[in-house]
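Exam revision sheet. Question 4 asks you to relate a sequence to its structure. Input first:
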Amino acid sequence: MVKNAPNAARRAATLLLPLSLLAMPAFAQTAVKEDSVILQPDKVADDAPVIAAQVTLPSWTEEDATALLSTIENIGAEGLFAKDYNPDALAAAILSNDQVALDKRATDTFLLLATHLRDGRTPNAARKQWFMVDSDADAEPLLPLLETALNAGSIRETLASLNPIHPDFAVLKAALANAKAPADANAIRVNMERWRWMPRALGERYVVSNVPEYMTRVVHGGTIIATHKAVVGKASTATPQLNPMATGIIVNPTWTLPRSIINEGIGATIARNPASARAQGYTWTGSGKTLSVVQKAGPNNALGVMKMEMLNEHAIYLHDTPSKGAFNAAARAFSHGCIRTERALHFSGLMAVMFAGRSPEEFGEAIASGKTTRFGFDQPFPVYVAYWTVIPDGKGGTKKLADLYGRDAPVVASFAKPGRPTATIITPVAPQVVPTVQTTARVTTPGTSGIY
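Answer key, structure tokens:
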């Protein structure tokens, strides 16, 4: 991801040194289940940006239009396809001596290319279970961008500025230039696309989990300060991609069981052997279809000693687990959708100390108390649950990961079809002009109306 900084990680470890006294044994509980992902339907309709403006087409010089054409001819280096932007039609418009035709063709072409560079060319239907919110359209509106570029004569530089700024994107771009096989090139393009589907700037602090890599990282100031193995959703309960805001860390959490897991077994246990259910920490109200079950905090709780608070409609969050042995597997797709986090004491302690302003002693006391405690973050930050199948290898190159959920193929297939549509300019309708009603002028004789 971003560069590791051993010194920063060492400082974080030193800060949390007292937490080593709180190390808990690895419980051997098996078949631990946590909250199931709430599967949401894929977004299949394309949401092309719409620009409402009272504008006339900007005027293009031959020099600016030629710079746009040159950018298109070399756009393959950015993982896009020149054919999408009809360079022949643009070249013909440049040679036509028809200013109106040139202005229209160049403007439409710029908006399409800028849309793909900023937001990605992949249609929504091919972005399987991708629910990240990308705010780049708000930060970089295209018409002002075009106007500035034309005024400064910087079409080429302006389009280049829309690329993701994360260093991993630059590594992928370099790898694309050296790719030998078409399949390798397409795998790289897929992942360059995924970077474009995300916010261009990820933030000063964030947590990122790369699902195919089974890894979670804590990033602060562009530096990775902690790395943790992760257990992600199995294929039948695949982890979706999203970027909710983290608002706090909860230690010794309770667990409210979803209906699907109640139906899988604990509901029957409660009905047939309530003493056994109580021994496992379960409490409940109602019965049958109204049965509501909560597991109390404790060493056998399915969420372990911590849960990151990150509200989202998918019920996805990071949490601990009593089943520590799962972290020893190379491929770690075992969960019901949530992300289980290795070394949860270290992770939650780091969150409480660095982002909630608590002392290691306060955190330690909360853990030792066994009581459910929430540490709210002073500034909420995003958690990116991402899906990159080609990543930097740490040696200047890249490595390919297994496509856990088969999400690369739909993106590759979309390369042979039209990409997302261009931005649409909607010119507001001018208000209706009310015609003037002509009346016969009336002339009054002074003294007859009292008006002078």
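Marking note for examiners. The chain has two domains: 62-197, 205-405.
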